[in-house]
Amino acid sequence: MEMKRKVTVQSIFRRFLVWFCLMTAGLFLICVIMFGVLSAAGAVLPANYSEVALERRRTEIQEADIVTKEMIPDNCHYGVYSEDGTFLYGNLRQSSQEKVWKEYKRGGGGDGALGYLKYFPRDGEVCLAVYQLRAEFTNPLLKKILPGVPEGLFLLFIILFFIQSVLLIRRFGNVIRRELEAVKLVTEKVKLQNLDFEKPDSRIVEIDEVMESLVKMKEALEASLKQQWEMEENRRQQIRALAHDIKTPLTVIRGNTQLSCEAESLEESRECQEYILQETDRIEQYICILQEMLKSDGAVKLLEETVAIRGLAESFAENARVVASAFGRNLEVVISLISDYIISDRQMLLRAWENLLDNAVEYTPKGGNITIKLYEEEDRLCFRIEDSGPGFTEEDIRRGPEQFYQGDKSRNSKSHYGMGLFIVQSFAKQQGGRLTLGNAGTHKGACVCLEIGIRPACPEMDDKKNGK
């Protein structure tokens, strides 16, 4: 298929201007040719026709007893004056009679406004004829309608010029409109999320660039919709998995309830009841996970409160040591020089730290090491946690914070369902920070760093918002 040659909008308007000038020049040439043809055909009187006709009748006018209208050409006016300037007769307008006499006495030949004069001396009087040097039509009707041939041709030129302008504007307007219709069609398809289309080819460079941008927008929207669909599908799968997992503790509860009813001793009944309590706890955990999934549909609106960050960090460190000790992990917490107060959401900040701690405790083997460092770097508060667990795979590092992501089973369990790191990253973004995953930690395991932007606060602000 032959490729259309691309043109710019500037070249289109340049072409329009060239066509406009050529057609205007053509119209002028047509009018000139038309004037020549009409003159050759005798339909137009030459500009000096009246002057020549008057000279031909000079003798007749001078010798006649009375100058009649028939002696004077149709497009002329005349007046017969006495020697003292008294207007005797003729068809001169009253307003012109005195002006014509004064021009005669001055010896002038007239002008464009008054008209040009011819003198015809007579016995005791003088005949003054006024004429115009102007080409006129021989047709009486045209002569009556139009003041002269130049004016008529000029009027014709204006009419043709207007028609030409309308046709040219319409022609070039249609070219632009057709190209813009394609842009409009593409934008409508993108608006309706109907993304199954190819890029229409445009011969105008600028519009083709707009098309390219719209196609890129389409591709980005397509990828976003696909990602959203996959996330929703993943969400449905996880909820189905949760629903399936809840059946297991329910089955255990049902079975142990039946056994408890049939137990022959108190010890057997108590053992069944302990199983029931354990499975009830599992159901509560699953319900909490389901609630987290439902909450993740929309971003949580963070509070802006004054947080006693040093006090919160020390309190967290104490609780973290208790948790690590209970699970048989070795924990080291290092709190460097940090601000006393910042503006943040205390509960969400603590929740983010706890999620990272839970993740490290879960994947660190018994007797393993966990290190937490809390420090400030430029205008950011950094929470860095390292463990001696199996670490992250390359896919985990790339996709770990995605909602519902569960990658390598070595760092996954059913207790989080891919929500922990997603919640932490969402909080970090809302605080103007970021969440970074890696493996280059002190213990050669996983390394996670949470950074949030610091907004200093004064301790005099509402103490109740500090959690004190």
Automatic annotation (TrEMBL):
Transmembrane segments: 16-45, 152-169
Cellular compartments per GO CC: plasma membrane
Listed SUPFAM superfamilies: ATPase domain of HSP90 chaperone/DNA topoisomerase II/histidine kinase, Homodimeric domain of signal transducing histidine kinase
Subcellular location as annotated: Membrane
Main localization category: membrane
Domain of life (superkingdom): Bacteria
Molecular function as annotated in GO: phosphorelay sensor kinase activity
Entry's EC annotation: 2.7.13.3
InterPro entries found in the cross-reference section: HATPase_C_sf, HATPase_dom, His_kinase_dom, HisK_dim/P_dom, HisK_dim/P_sf, HssS/ArlS-like, Sig_transdc_His_kin/Pase_MprB
Keywords in alphabetical order: Kinase, Membrane, Phosphoprotein, Transferase, Transmembrane, Transmembrane helix, Two-component regulatory system
Stretches assigned to the Histidine kinase domain: 241-456
One Pfam family recorded for the sequence: HisKA
Reaction catalysis annotation: ATP + protein L-histidine = ADP + protein N-phospho-L-histidine
Tagged with keyword Glycoprotein: no
Membrane-related topology note: Multi-pass membrane protein
Record's protein name: histidine kinase
Annotated source species: Hungatella hathewayi
